[in-house]
Amino acid sequence: MASCHISVQDLAVRYGSVLAVKGATFEVRQGEQLTLLGPSGCGKTTILRAIAGLEQPASGEIRIGEAVVYSSRQAINVRPEKRGLSMVFQSYAIWPHMTVFENVAYGLRVRGVRGRELERQVHDALALVQMDAFVGRGASQLSGGQQQRVALARAFVFSPSVLLFDEPLSNLDAKLRAEMRIELRELQRRIGITSVYVTHDLEEALAISDRIVVMRDGVIEQIGAPDDIYHRPRNAFVADFVGSANLIGGRVKLDRAEDGLIAVETSGGSLVFGQSYGRTVGTEAVLAVRTVHAELRRDRPDAPRNVWPVQIRRRIFQGDFTQYQVDWEDRPLVVRCIAGLPFEEGEQVYLHLDPCHCVLLEPS
Amino acid sequence: MRSFGLGAGASAGQKITALALTVVCAVLVLYPIYYLIQAALNVGDPQARPPEQYGLANFVGVLQYTKILTNTVIVALVATVFALLFGFVMGWILSRTNVPGRATFEQLMALPYYVTPLMGALAWSLLGSPESGFVNQVWRTLGGEGYLININTAYGIAWVMAIFEGSVAFVMIGAVMKSMDPSLEEASQVLGGGRVRTMLRVTLPLVAPGVLGAAVFVFAEMLGSFSAALVLGLPNRFYVITTAMYQLVSQYPPKFPLAAAMGVSLFAVMFVIVYLYRRIVMAGTYETITGKAFRPRVMRVGGLRWSLLAVCLVYLFLAVALPVFTLAYASFQKLATAFPRAGNWTLANYTAAWSMEAVRSALANSLLLGLATATLGVGIMGLLAWIIYRSRLPGRAAIEYLVMFPQAVPRLVFAFGMMWAWLVFPIPIYGTLWLLLIAYLTVFLPLGVRTIAGVLLQIDKNLEECAQMCGAPWGYRLRTVTLPLLRPGVLAAWLLLFIASVRELGASILLMGPKAKVITPAIVESWFATSSELTAAMALLQTLVVGIAVAILLVSTRRLAQLGGE
After folding, report:
1. Is the interface score ipTM higher than 0.90?
2. HSE-up of A278 (CA within 13 Å, CB side)?
3. What's the pLDDT tens digit per position in B480-536?
4. A115-146: buried (b, 16+ CB within 10 Å) or exposed (e) per residue?
């Protein structure tokens, strides 16, 4: 495992009387792309700004490499410009009174790079984001996507030890965002820089991250690799925020457990089998099953468990998939079907929940 | 929890600069106030310094001047009502109706500010004094008895003050009307509320806090205003509190403690009012300011638009065209009367004014002071604005209060405190231009800081933070990012400070020495001591010189900007 590059310990940040971050602890490994993911107001940007030094925490400790840059106990608070980081802002923050060249050259000039060497490095950085043709342009003459690229070049040109991204793609339109997402990932791999990325966009987080930190209300809910977070959400919030999920609650029937699966009896009397993934099993349990992992069939599927007849109540066509609401045990379940013939509202079909997709949640 | 809060995360340079500026501000602002209060509490020998006996007798003394106190309140109230009326009507017409030439009128609404109450008072005195006023001359020629208008009364003074403060009220109320999201009104109409109901139930409640805020602000300004009451009231021995203070200080023997007590009382009242104003403004903003961009809904008023156009024209005529024209006319007359005669035209007033050494040196002094105040001012006030609104230093809110403090103190009252304060100052600056420079820098602190802050707050904070993330230290950031982006604000502040300094009266009239005169008090002296024709020429000369200086500056900065851009 790569060594730890940034470590955040018990970080708390206060805005007036509101505690925006309530004791966050995590680390970022060398060369890793870590994403802070969560709904707006969850404190993710605050953590990023605290790492940058732009926000003063109330307590905790932040280390970058060997150096302690913030510690409430040791009364250390290194100024942002001395932390050796760099940042891409949500608003791009391209200086309107400078050309593209001047913008990118800024960090190098601060570091005393001059002359041919300056030109070469600026040119190389702009080439890497395919903006070398725009070097003499004024910043106001650039489109949103171009500004984004310049902001990126400006951020990495002086070889900072860490790159911070504050929702850098949120101001771009959907198509461009998808393209930039891939480019960003490519670039990050090529320069191999440690980066911390903030977004509220799930797809973005899944696509570009090595690991994801899911946050809510200033608290970290789960840390893990994208597929880990997606397939094995720890609690109801993560299950619902990272893709949509159905939650099924009931009493644990230890005597009915089979094949390493756990069995949960719902209030309606159905027995639902699921995976515990080694989590502690109590007497009550909630299983989460993703709406895309539930399966609808006209004919009874050939599966030993988790098959029930249900009725289609609502059908909502959504383009890439069709969303159905089905009546299951007098309660609605949501199922998303990617392909196949459409079912009619009112039609009787079979619902199959593959036990390996029914994930036991930790009690909240 | 925060054991090391003091400015952690800020560079040493930033902390030292902030501390130094705070000390300078504190001295500039609080030192004179200390002496003002000390003088007000002096009940012993009025000449003894420091006072031998302290007491509140002077404040009791102030209360005995009931006539002056009622005069002050009447003038301020009437002026506020009229100023608000002008401001509200003009604000509504120019931001909410489709009156022709709206954009042009909006620009023109700045003109009354440049004409100034002093010029207005001089002009309206020529127009409306009961005997020789042009209007009354015409009235008698038409067969009228006595006089039609008398400007040398409480209402006359209030009228002149209101006309000029009207443009301030307009700016404040117009901004509220523009910042109102029209969908709030549309929602009412969609839900079946008629025009009248929408107006009463939605529009008015939404603009009410803004209008109330403007009312309080204007009233405070009116309480402390000086020049119109001086020019129009003194001939009739009609005093308001500021002119009474001036009288008490400049008469022989002067009654300093009583004047000081008047100043302290006035400033205490204004302080409360300004505090109220801040409360109102802060409570009211959330209702109308949404941060979303929208165009204010313009009401189609049909044929009425021509009547509204006439209203705008009449206001600008009364506030700008008529006063300027009257002064210009009088300045070219041997003896100004309402009816021009062939033999009465002359250039003598201008040649006289220009040839008087006193006028020339006063004008030169004023220009020099204007340049110095504006140049030093933008530096100090720009840094202050940055520290207050951009730094994360502890105590920046306190600095803001300190800087905005002079807002609540009439300039004349402040000058009184300075007179005492700098008289005992070890370096002899009393009676020199240096004292005036210090005075201007103090009384114009709120003006400069607010102007620069207005632009500073529009600059995305990320632009500066990004420079910081690129590793740039504070000074470097200010020079390469903040300052270039702040240029329009700095230029505007420079111009405002320059113009305000050159035309300053309230502080200058008390503080200027016999060998270091400045132009505006010289104009007032001339008004009382020499002819009104000569005074009119001096006033226009001053305006002309300011205009030329501003024009030169604007052209040269534009030239510089072009050179820099190539």
Report:
1. no
2. 1
3. 999 999 888 888 889 989 999 999 999 999 998 888 899 999 999 999 998 899 999
4. eeebeebbbebbebbebeebbebebeebeebb
Among chain B residues, CA nearest to A50: B9
Q: What is the reported pLDDT for B291?
A: 42
Angle at B262 between CA B81 and CA B412, to 5 degrees: 75
CA–CA dist B258, B149 (Å, integer): 34
What is the arrangement of strands in the sheet containing A294-297, beginning at the earlier edge strand?
Answer: A294-297, A348-353, A307-317, A322-328, A331-337
Alpha-carbon distance values, A45 to A38, A215, B274 (Å): 10, 11, 38
Q: Collect the ranges in chain B with pLDDT lower than 70.
A: 1-9, 283-297, 561-566
Task: Fill in the amino acid letter for B130.
Answer: P
Q: What is the radius of gyration, based on Cα positions, of chain B? A: 25
In angstroms, rounded to a whole number, what is the distance separating the alpha carbons of residues B24 and A355? 74
Summarize chain B as % helix, strand, coil (round to 5). 75, 0, 25
Does the distance separating the beta carbons of B471 and A111 come in below 8 Å? Answer: yes
- Measured in whole angstroms, how far is the alpha carbon of residue A43 from the centre of its chain? 13
By the CB < 8 Å criterion, does A247 face chain B?
Answer: no
Q: How far apart are the first and last CA of chain A?
A: 31
Distance CA A217, CA B487 (A): 41
Q: Strands A85-88 and A162-166: what pairing?
A: parallel
Q: Tell me whether residue A77 is exposed, middle or buried, using C-beta atoms within 10 angstroms of its C-beta: 0 to 12, 13 to 18, 19 or more.
A: buried
Report the 10 Å Cβ neighbour count for A103.
29
Average pLDDT of chain A?
90
In chain A, pLDDT over 90 holds for what percent of residues? 57
Interface test with B, best of A95, A98, A104 (most B CBs within 10 A): A95
A215-to-A43, A222, A276, B353 alpha-carbon distances in Å: 7, 7, 23, 76
Residues 6+ apart with CB under 8 A from B518: B362, B365, B366, B369, B436, B504, B508, B512
CA distances A219 to A12, A24, A25, A26, A230, Å, are 10, 6, 9, 11, 19
Distance (Å, whole) CA A48 – CA A55 = 9
**Cβ contact B480–A56 (<8 Å):** no
Residue A86 is nearest to which of B462, B463, B470, comparing CB atoms? B470
pLDDT at B294: 55
Cα–Cα distance, B510 to A256 (Å, whole number): 98
The 3-state secondary structure of B163-197, one letter per residue: HHHHHHHHHHHHHHHHCCCHHHHHHHHHCCCCHHH
Kindly state the tokens that stand for A68: 């302690």
Q: Which residue of A has its CA nearest to B470?
A: A107
Write out residues in chain A with pLDDT < 70, as ranges: 1-2, 364
Residue A8 pairs with which residues in a beta bridge?
A26, A62
User: Closest Cα of chain B to A207: distance in Å?
Assistant: 26
| pTM attached to this predicted model | 0.85
Strands A359-360 and A284-290: antiparallel
pLDDT (tens digit per residue) in A68-117: 999 999 999 999 999 989 999 998 899 988 999 999 999 999 999 999 99
CB contact under 8 A, A77 and B9: yes
Max Cα-Cα span within chain A? 78
Residue A164 pairs in a beta bridge with A87, A196
